[in-house]
């Protein structure tokens, strides 16, 4: 394949292709808003809502930037994964009112990766004055956004989708420097249908990667 150099991302030597590939989507999707919204300063406190394909790399990038990270999830069972394996500093169960109340007004920003319909009011409450809630998920139905909590704390709700080529290269270089990789499960091409069924059940940690090269080699 021949491509214009302006549209090619260079993968640093030593970076594994399989675990780096998902960063070209999930990685830049979380890296870009951390940079753009200024949530990348050491010592800041950032929440990450949802511990899935986007959330797990958001934790890794934010920690590499020197940020204090709290994972916010509806699933208490994900606490050990978030704190012990991914290195988050703390964990909040969003359905636990006592935990959420104790964390009110403590975060500089929140990266919300959830695509399901969910209440924003509790998340806005976690923000400090002038805090920023950044939406990366796209729920099928509109989310309810209360105005008054935004007014009283001069808080911001924003969004982000992906990033340009320059920033994508910056993200890949940053990931290589800090040994950031997506958590993946490598599968052969003929496993795709099963993978799609598992994906519908959220049964993947956290990205499927198709081994195209070896699949092609095994084809008679």
TrEMBL record:
Swiss-Prot/TrEMBL cofactor(s): Zn(2+)
Entry GO MF terms: cinnamyl-alcohol dehydrogenase activity; metal ion binding
Ranges where the Alcohol dehydrogenase-like C-terminal domain occurs: 53-176
Coiled coil ranges: none
Reactions that this protein is recorded to catalyse: (E)-cinnamyl alcohol + NADP(+) = (E)-cinnamaldehyde + NADPH + H(+)
Source organism superkingdom: Eukaryota
Pathways per UniProt: Aromatic compound metabolism; phenylpropanoid biosynthesis
EC number: 1.1.1.195
Keyword Oxidoreductase: yes
GO biological process per UniProt: lignin biosynthetic process
Keywords linked to the UniProt accession: Lignin biosynthesis, Metal-binding, NADP, Oxidoreductase, Zinc
Pfam annotation, one family: ADH_zinc_N
Family classification: Belongs to the zinc-containing alcohol dehydrogenase family.
Complex and partners: Homodimer.
Protein name in UniProt: cinnamyl-alcohol dehydrogenase
Organism the protein comes from: Citrus sinensis
